Amino acid sequence: MTFSSYPAYTEDISVAGSLLRDKISGLYESIVKRERRWSDWDLASSWRILIKVDKVQLVDRLGVEPNVVGTLHVTTSHIIFRSEEGSKELWIANGLIGSVERGSLSAAGCPLIIRCKHFQVVNLLIARDKICQDLYETLLRCSKTVNVCELVAFENRDVAEDARGWARLDWAVEFTRQGVDSEWAENDLNESYRSCDTYPERLWLPVTANKTTLMGSCRFRSRGRLPVLTYFHKSNGAAICRCAQPLTGFSARCVEDEKLMELIGRANKNCDTLFLVDTRPMVRFLPVGFYLIALFPLLKLCS
To answer: For the Myotubularin phosphatase domain, which residue ranges apply (predicted)?
Structure first.
């Protein structure tokens, strides 16, 4: 590089820096703003507003731009600041609030600093001390949820619908829709949830499985989650069954559980292969896998 070309090179670097700065500024604005402008009615219909404060000043931390006056909405999901003329809008999810700091009252107002977990800092100026205190307490409550039912996901819930529990889904109707064949039958093994409190009362199991086999498998599996039918493919008779891992160690065996696995494999007349999918880590899976391969020659293991 010659000395005469050095100024031109410096100018190119300056232009590239300006373009990069503009791109970063545009990206930042697209993140902190929403293109759509919401009205108060839209906010009220979409989220429950916890507190609304007018004449809030959004302070520029660097002091380069003048304060922006607007309205602050604190909802069950977001903090939303919108300027009075609608030129600026700021959205912050409640889950991103890291800390909230309240300053002392001055002639300009009461400062409130919101520090977010993604390193964004929002400086607000509230005119009245009482309103600032209410806003401060509301933001603290939003940042540290004590009860999960206070989250936005639990709003607008139908209490009567929740009380239905397992009755939300009629398994008899569902398996009829799936076209379950005569190799599977409804079983009352879990009536009143006496065998497994995380399974529905009515279970679909191989029709050839007797109660002794089912109870033995139930005692062998964690929390009584024996293999039960969850999906049936009518066109080829394939079935998906789910269960929990065994309660005991690798060396233990359960004759009833082995029998039930064999009956599940025989329930599909169109295929002689039973696929066992184990989602546990490979280290814990391999000892059981070798044992099952020796037990069922036609078994294929997937992990």
So the answer is: 165-303
Q: For 127-131, which contacts have Cβ atoms below 8 Å and span 24 or more sequence positions?
A: 127/55, 129/105, 131/53
134 and 196 assigned to the same domain: no
Both structure tokens of 81: 């600041």
In the chain, how many H helices and how many E strands? 8, 13
Strands (E), 67-208: 68-75, 78-83, 89-93, 97-102, 110-116, 121-126, 184-187, 203-206
Lowest mean pLDDT among 23-27, 101-105, 112-116, 274-278: 23-27
The residue with tokens 């000395």 is: 3
Taking the CA of residue 131 as centre, how many other CA atoms within 13 Å lie in the half-sphere pointing to its CB? 18
90 and 175 co-located in one domain: no
Domain that holds residue 63: 47-146
Same domain, 66 and 112: yes
pLDDT of residue 1: 42
Cβ(92)–Cβ(119) below 8 Å:
no
Domain-located, residue 134: yes
Segment 45-93, tens digit of pLDDT: 456 778 888 989 999 878 788 889 999 998 888 889 999 888 888 998 8
Q: Which amino acid is at 48?
A: R
Residue 131 lies in a domain: yes
Domain count for the chain:
2
Q: What is the pLDDT of residue 288?
A: 54
d(CA 32, CA 91): 6
Higher pLDDT, 223 or 145: 223
Work out the mean pLDDT of the chain and round it to a whole number.
79
